[in-house]
Design a protein that fits this description.
globular; 12 helices
């Protein structure tokens, strides 16, 4: 993909073309009978000049290399196909020396391929701005179907934009789908063609324009696997019917999936022929999985990739997140904002500070009990706290409550691909929800302090004779940041009620101590 650039210096010498008035060359004293040494003198001068120029060029290139360590040593320029006909650079990281194989995978080892459509670009690009970090050496390409206006990206808050290749030669026969599925299924291959073996790429990650990645957690997940092997990493749908219709062995691209670089190279070699063999498939993800199947590579499931094939309120899913890093959120245009009384984008921006403070712990659930008041408490760190009257077991609280609806609206609760529990109808059993209002780092102790305010909604009176959580205005949670949380065996953090008054509760969250369990007393 690259051509070497040569700048030879041409030395032209011809004794017959010298100016007639030029003085004759100085000759050494010698007998007239001996031949003139003029050719030998000029040869020596030619060799000396060549050596001098070569030395100068060598010193110049050495100085440049020393100055540009850790920057791009090579740059490729791709046209930004849009109304402005401007250009952008998709730069690739080059190391002067190959990095050691035992070096941990970082964000700079990953290239994102983002599927987008021009029709929805104006709105959905705001989701990409939430997680795209060009200042952190992040590399990504947005693949569109038709050109869009790109002059507004002066601050490079969005990745470069490319137009997908022509797919008219591929057959598409599914009457319920759209042939854009072929275009999207080729994004990994098209992205791969923009990089080569010297670009220090370990993983290619696929996502949609309405996917939000928690990139620190993505890196944590990918570090579990050998990037030199063949890995296809992602997760299934929340809808059992979706998984039956497509495959439980298929990664959903909206939730995102990762393909190791060696596997991506194998896919690129055979994908176009493979796609031709499956004209009747519905979407892009099943085409990708069909080609993976031909290569014999199974899906490696990581539950932190979330397709979110549901409608309505995600609260039940987020408040009982599985014990795994939160990697992605999808279908953000379909579900309600994750925080009340704000727009979808504003709600997601509220997660920015807790993500910066302790991304490994984002949405991780802890369960404890206020034994004085007889309450059960669930902390979804960085998102929300729930207080229940009475004692609920951890087994019950770690099961998502059905605040959401199935992707297929006629399907019932048995159509989910995981366990759920009903939303409690008894007004005394319904939880009091406290949403994140503020998060900060306490400089004196190096602990995070997150504050949660009660979301007050109309309630039916409860006749239980016990303390009423309605009087609690807020919950304060202290927690030590733990970037190595997922380097250990998976386990929920423990939480402890430090202080409980009529109006406020203080909770400490952290690693469970030896013998510590979440045990309620009835």
């Amino acid at each position: 993909m690259k051509t070497a650039q040569h700048n030879p210096v041409k030395f032209i010498w011809d004794s017959t073309t010298r100016h007639p008035s030029a003085p004759p060359p100085i000759s050494t004293a010698a007998p007239p009978s001996k031949p003139s040494p003029k050719p030998m003198v000029w040869l020596i001068l030619l060799i000396s000049a060549t050596y001098l120029i070569y030395t100068i060029k060598l010193l110049s290139s050495s100085h440049t290399a020393n100055c540009d360590t850790d920057i791009f040593a090579a740059r490729r320029h791709f046209p930004l196909v849009g109304k402005s006909n401007t250009t952008t650079q998709f730069t690739t990281f080059r190391q002067q020396q190959s990095p050691p194989e035992n070096q941990k995978t970082g964000l700079h080892h990953i290239v994102f391929g983002i599927a987008a459509s021009a029709k929805l670009w104006g709105r959905r690009k705001e989701y990409i701005k939430l997680w795209y970090k060009p200042q952190d050496k992040m590399r990504a390409i947005v693949w569109l179907d038709t050109p869009v206006e790109t002059r507004g990206n002066k601050r490079r808050s969005l990745p470069p934009v490319r137009i997908s290749g022509d797919t008219s030669r591929f057959s598409y026969t599914n009457k319920k789908g759209h042939r854009s599925a072929i275009r999207i299924s080729r994004i990994i291959s098209e992205t791969l063609r923009l990089i080569d073996d010297n670009d220090n790429v370990r993983w290619l990650v696929m996502g949609d324009d309405d996917t939000v990645f928690v990139t620190d957690n993505l890196v944590r997940v990918l570090n579990k696997y050998d990037h030199n092997g063949y890995y296809y990493i992602g997760s299934s749908s929340e809808s059992h019917l979706q998984n039956i219709y497509f495959s439980y062995g298929m990664a959903y691209g909206g939730g995102g999936f990762a393909v190791s670089y060696p596997l991506a190279k194998e896919i690129e070699k055979m994908q176009d022929k493979c796609i031709q063999r499956y004209p009747g498939l519905y979407g892009s993800d099943d085409r990708m999985q069909a080609c993976m199947s031909e290569l014999g590579v199974p899906l490696t499931k990581e539950l932190g990739f979330h397709q979110y094939d549901v409608h309505g309120d995600l609260f039940g899913l987020l408040a009982a997140h599985p014990i795994t890093p939160l990697v992605s959120l999808h279908h953000l245009d379909v579900v309600d904002p994750i925080f009340p009384n704000v727009t979808r984008t504003q709600a997601l921006k509220r997660l920015k500070i807790p993500t910066q403070l302790d991304s490994a712990a984002l949405m991780q659930q802890s369960i404890c009990y206020d034994k004085v008041n007889g309450w059960s408490i669930s902390v979804s760190w960085g998102f929300a706290v729930q207080i229940f009257r009475g004692i609920l077991s951890p087994r019950e609280m770690e099961t998502p409550s059905r605040t959401f609806l199935n992707w297929y609206k006629k399907a019932d609760y048995k159509a989910y691909a995981f366990n759920t529990r009903p939303v409690m109808r008894n007004p005394c059993e319904r939880p009091f929800v406290f949403y994140l209002s503020e998060a900060r780092m306490e400089s004196r102790t190096n602990r995070t302090v997150s504050e949660y305010s009660q979301h007050r909604v109309p309630r039916t009176a409860c006749k239980w004779e016990m303390a009423d959580p309605a009087d609690v205005d807020g919950v304060v949670v202290y927690k030590n940041p733990d970037p190595n949380l997922w380097d250990r065996s998976p386990r929920r953090n423990c939480c402890r009620v430090v202080k409980s008054t009529k109006n406020n509760i203080v909770i400490d969250v952290g690693l469970c101590k030896e013998g510590e369990i979440s045990e309620g007393v009835k």
